[in-house]
Fold this sequence. Notes:
Bound molecules: ligand GBE
Strand content: 5-15%
Helix content: 40-55%
CATH architecture: Alpha-Beta Barrel
Mean pLDDT: 95
CATH topology: TIM Barrel
Number of domains: 1
Order of helices and strands: HEHHHEHHEHHEHHEEHHHEEHEHEHEEEH
Radius of gyration: 23 Å
Strand order of the largest sheet: 1-2-3-4-5-7-10-11
Low-confidence stretches: 1-23
CATH superfamily: Glycosidases
CATH class: Alpha Beta
Structural class: alpha/beta
Distance between the termini: 38 Å
Amino acid sequence: xxxxxxxxxxxxxxxxxxxxxxxxxxxxxxxxxxxxxxxxxxxxxxxxxxxxxxxxxxxxxxxxxxxxxxxxxxxxxxxxxxxxxxxxxxxxxxxxxxxxxxxxxxxxxxxxxxxxxxxxxxxxxxxxxxxxxxxxxxxxxxxxxxxxxxxxxxxxxxxxxxxxxxxxxxxxxxxxxxxxxxxxxxxxxxxxxxxxxxxxxxxxxxxxxxxxxxxxxxxxxxxxxxxxxxxxxxxxxxxxxxxxxxxxxxxxxxxxxxxxxxxxxxxxxxxxxxxxxxxxxxxxxxxxxxxxxxxxxxxxxxxxxxxxxxxxxxxxxxxxxxxxxxxxxxxxxxxxxxxxxxxxxxxxxxxxxxxxxxxxxxxxxxxxxxxxxxxxxxxxxxxxxxxxxxxxxxxxxxxxxxxxxxxxxxxxxxxxxxxxxxxxxxxxxxxxxxxxxxxxxxxxxxxxxxxxxxxxxxxxxxxxxxxxxxxxxxxxxxxxxxxxxxxxxxxxxxxxxxxxx
Length: 501
Ligand code: GBE
């Protein structure tokens, strides 16, 4: 008994000394990025390329939105020229090289390759452009990671109804076949879709993302259904025709915010769990869970709400058992776009009907959280670690590739806010890897350079490199964050001057 108390005292004493020891308090930031862990930076075609009608490119839904409804974009800006990467891609590759990036995540403009969306007309100039970019990257030791769809749907396919039309799954597969055929010898990392949750919201409001059609709680669910089918078709196509020769990986990039229960009541905990299922699970569960299909809570609530609203069938389409099997397991990695967090509590808000209503919770952010230039983006590093853990527990610890993570400001070169964001978020990522055993296999910063931030135009800047949009030559200049990221890539750790207590 006495001995036990002595042991206890000793342990307590040691713990106290341990806790106060100045040499040990910075334990966490000393974690290193695993050997070979790839670091890169990301962009998207419409946000950087420009050249909107050059060399045979077809019109896409962002060309249409910015030209026909300019009032939907801050300052009536558009991506006609953007960063002019259509002409300046060699410079972009040099920026990546200066960062020490292992890879570049960029997207292909569907209408630049297939001007009418269909595979009957292939625009050779578009193929040449992406071949040049890919070859320039490889010549500089940078691996291409290609997103097939980052929101710029050919207008010709929107004219057929866009993503709510299930036929688009077939057209997307045909487009993917062109990409694998022309680029798959050199591209080994493929992402089918960037953030379906975000771009299907283009069918839930006439004020936001293209095509800006107001059919919430219906059009966005139909679009999601097509997109999940389209993703699975492309994965199977790769398996059946290309994988044995090309030996690459095919994944999908899903975005999610962490939801922290406002109180520890069972209701608020369940509300935040629903947030994850309605926003992430709606795509991830069919693909990454063992059982497949939409999450049970999503099916139940949409079906119940639909009935209560007088619909005789659920606003959420159903997968047949064969479709569930076809879709399940169709991803080689889990692409994660992560930025911010919310507090969540049980309650109702949003349009009737809408995904927000169906999910049955109220979200808000903490006024004490550090702000960015984007209303929605507050700096919540610990949310990043919690999200990694949620994914680990929900989907049996899949390989997670962070395909986007970043911070907005007004474009200053001494971007201390962005440096704080990256150093703190990366620290939490290191904890997820080393303390929680989360299977994180790569990281891309959003974004390589300032670019067209969708409905926010050029008002919010996410770049590691500054771009002068008033200068027709669009010069690029490294910000402080570019130097810090280069240092992190080189040393494989967070520099000591950024360690937090
Ligand atoms: C990503 O989306 C995109 O993949 C990338 O293209 C983009 O540039 C980057 O992040 C930065 O935004 O009325 O302002 O609150 C908010 C991140 C809409 C996820 C913004 C949609 C964040 C989901 C509307 N959000 N986005 S509001």
